[in-house]
Give the backbone structure.
Amino acid sequence: MKINKRGRAKYKPMNNIDRNIIKQFLEERISKEQTITKKNANSTDLSNIIYVENKMNLISLFSGCGGLDLGTEISGLDTKYGKNTANDIISDMEIFLKKRKESIFHTIFSIDNFKEANETYKINFPKHVIKSDGDIRKIQNFPQADIVLGGFPCPGFSEGGPRLIDDERNFLYLHFIRCLLQSKPFFFIAENVKGMLTLGGGTVAEQIKEDFSSAGYKVQMKLTNAKDYGVPQSRQRVFLVGVRNDLDFEYSFPEPTHGIANGKTSYITLRQAIGELENNPGDWYEGSFSPIFLSRNRKKTWDDQSFTIQASGRQAPLHPSGEPMVKLGKDLWELPGGIEKHRRLSVKEIARIQTFPDWFAFSSGSETRGSNNNKLNKIYKQIGNAVPVELARAILAPIAEWSTANIDALMKLREFDSNID
């Protein structure tokens, strides 16, 4: 499914592939993934899961540092307190820690194999959450749940990556589906990069949606931009939202809350998001800028939204202060006055741009060695991989509202084998 033709990435994808060939290939990979699970399954102890009655008990797959999870949790507070009051709650860590249990969403289990991200998750989420740092392919039996969410890995779909249909990372979504078949949740939310839509001429995305549907769900798929929902960043991501077929509920993606109307913009700007941090930005990734970095503009103005936050400190956008970059020619830009006049956005700033609360603590890893840049890069990677908290909050809002209004009916449909508080 690839050709040995060098491009910007290692390979370029084959174009105009026969759709039946792609479908056959995907079916073969599904069978292979099932075999891997049977051979390598481990015995992760899930016997101590704490379910809570009248809550949407939640499983988080590919959880990372927890951006999608936190946004989901906050959407559950919105239904109880209203968004303005909820904003006040989440701005104060002590108040949030007292109130978070009142969210309709209750996380019971999460899994990710990014060590430092798991450490961050443990710092910021309740101790009752069973946290696995293993390979999802080795989880033989997932626990029952009411909702499952996760951003399945995307390097094989990324437009900045190899774009290979047979990249093994492209098939981890099958274990998301395996979780749905075992856990039987009422809802699921899956997130991925924009490039998923064009891989294989769009056939891969169609097959993925069909695979999710075949697990027993009405599936909606949409390309979203985070800036339309109050995130100070232009970040396009695909969401698949599934509603179990036996529920009388039709999910609709929320209308944008920000945009341009009557010549006026309501988008959140960099100045609004990080302006107050200019004199106290915290640590940032330091060092030279590669020719690839200087091949295009990397600096937005204070009145813009940020470029997409990458999972790399070296590739972090430039801070908006100082002179703008100057284009010298095709794929060549310069930094006026030299690199000492320009810096990358700091960890604290990109966390704000990804709409994490200021109190959210990130771990660089207790065993991370090397320079300060190495340690910082572990944090840049976590933040860049995360779903922006406010985007997650918006996407989950319709489910939070409907679940709150229909929790009694949902509880009648639910039967857990494990103990429920």
